[in-house]
Amino acid sequence: MVKLLRKVSVSRRKARKAHFTAPSNQRRIEMSCHLSKELRQKHGVRSLPIRKDDEVRVMVGRKRKGTMGKIVAVYRKKWVVHIDRFQTNKMSGQPVFIGVHPSNCELRTIKLLKDRKDLIERTAAARAKDSDKGKIAEVKKEVQEVD
Questions:
Q1: Structural domains of the chain sorted by starting position, each given as residue range(s) with its CATH number in brackets
Q2: What is the pLDDT of residues 34-45, one digit of tens each?
Q3: Closest among 35, 53, 55 to 45, alpha carbons compared
């Protein structure tokens, strides 16, 4: 395997350490969630960092696949989100939230605030700019006549 970036290690040990000791601002970005097809077409963005009060649909799991609910808490320390209808009961009968990783969810509705709108616009603009990247275009060269 050829190393492409000198600053990034290929070592599994170092990658795991970086992941599990990541600060909160990096965890926010790593805890991003895919958008539904409608939102993806509307905003031109594939995924967003997840936030409280977003509505999500759980995409994975035999029992709870397809469950929709609002996000109650984003628990960055444990890398999970808590969804309002996603609970189980303790032996004492007390309800407890089940943690779900954001990669197993799909954003259905977004709570749009000013900073989030700006983020979506920036990301969409960058995607639109790079959409031609890597495409081979036919270039017409004009032949100049020499006297």
A1: 18-111 (2.30.30.30)
A2: 999 999 999 999
A3: 35
